[in-house]
Amino acid sequence: MLSLSAEQEMVVSSLEELAQNEFSDAAFSWDGDIPLENIELLADRGYLGLNISEEYGGGGMGEFEAMLSIEAVGQVCPDTAEYLYNQQMVAPRGIEMFGSDTVKDRYLPGVTAGEDAIAIAISEPEAGSDVGAMSTTVEEENGELVLNGEKVWVSNIPHASACVVWARFPDGLGSVIIDLDDNEDSVEIEQHYTNMANHTQTQFRMHDIVVPETHVLTRGKDGFKQQLQALNWERLGSATLSNAIGRCALDKALEYGQQREQFDQPIADFQGIEWKLADMVKELEASRSLTYRAALNAEEQGRIPDRMDASLAKLYSGEMVETVVSESLQVHGANGYQQGHALEYLHRLARGRRLAAGTDEIQKNQIAAALKRDGLPSLT
Fold it and tell me: Are residues 227 and 347 located together in one domain of the fold?
């Protein structure tokens, strides 16, 4: 189990109480919609952007505390936790890591106030896992930086005021942030579509968007390396969200198993169900250990996650949550297999965790590459 400081314990206990009291009744009614009233409440209480600097309205804490917040909320309301994940561990993390003061002053206060969201656009129709095949470009034209290209599978666009875009510069891969309101006429929405979890994702094309120098996040010989540093935080955030969903599913299996009676006893008293519960908690706690170890290691290394640590946590958590949710559904029997049941929604949510922020196969490639380059991880 985790050993937390008094401040960290307060964050967890306060958010658990808030989630149970305010989010639980409607937790499975959102079905992919952003629970804006929950986000507003989190912002009012100062729990949105825990890892964003205080000067931008954040909590001034680290990623470890932000991850604790995702898990504390997500065990009750996964949709609220997904928003926390996106606005603490994805685009805003990269902005604070690499953005200019101009960009941070303009966008981060809106994130911590719950008024704005920032999207991130990486994948393209012909460049998913193969980032090197990316065709979106930032070219220098008449002394200006001009962005053109197409992106797909972008979350949060209908609610976002800005979007971080990965693109190819003349000197290598990099990233910029574009204001969606200012560039409304230059961003062509090709389609909105819905994934299995009922989340809206967007495919859009960018036409001759002039990018101010202040809106360049990464570029040059270190640009891609810096992007991967930010992406590894996204992977650890994804692992945390998987752990939250897994904990939610396990809690429901335990509660149902103790309430549901067959053959004159609670089904949780049958050894077959006991073993399922034991295996579920084993997998969940192993995943949490990998995830939080990676975060703590990163904080000791200047808030830069180790690539193998991040990939191990992302890979294991994605496999874990699919297994745990499936076993929880099995404990519920036919009741859990109904449309509209919490387990049906958790099952759809869980499947996406093995795809977002890099597929299982990409994580295995990263792990194997690190093994061949650095050897086995240290015992200390």
Answer: yes
CB distance 109 to 99 below 8 Å: no
* 3 state SS of 211: strand
Render pLDDT for 220-260 as a digit per residue (tens, 0 to 9).
989 999 999 999 999 999 999 999 999 999 999 999 999 99
271-300 helix and 63-74 helix, angle to the nearest 10 degrees: 160
Number of Cβ within a 10 Å radius of residue 55: 12
pLDDT tens per residue across span 78-131: 999 999 999 999 999 999 999 999 999 999 999 999 999 999 999 999 999 999
Write down which residue in 60, 95, 112 finishes a domain: 112
pLDDT at 1: 67
Among candidates 46, 88, 95, which has minimal Cα distance to 71? 88
How far is residue 108 from each of residues 49, 96, 103, 263, 295, measured CA to CA in Å?
9, 8, 8, 57, 22
Q: Could you give the C-alpha distances from 269 to 253, 258, 260, in angstroms and in order?
A: 13, 8, 10
Say if residue 170 is in the same domain as residue 63. no
Q: What is the pLDDT of residues 101-114, one digit of tens each?
A: 999 999 999 999 99
When the pLDDT of each residue in the chain is averaged and rounded to a whole number, the result is 97
Same domain for 351 and 275: yes
Look at residues 112, 137, 170 and tell me which one is the last residue of a structural domain: 112
* Over residues 179-208, mean pLDDT: 96
User: Residue 359 gets which letter from DSSP?
Assistant: -
Helix (H, G, I), strand (E, B) or coil at 174: strand
**Which of 33, 117, 39, 112 lies closest to 73 in space, CA to CA?**
39
**DSSP 3-state of 172:** strand
Beta bridge partners of 175: 166, 218
Helix pair 223-259, 91-98: axis angle to 10 deg:
150
User: Domain containing 357 — which CATH number?
Assistant: 1.20.140.10
In which domain, by residue range, is 124 found? 118-218
In this structure, is residue 278 part of a structural domain?
yes
Regarding whether 136 and 100 lie in a shared domain, the answer is no
1 occurs within a structural domain:
no
Q: Coil, strand, or helix at residue 232?
A: helix
pLDDT 10s digits, 259-279: 999 999 999 999 999 999 999
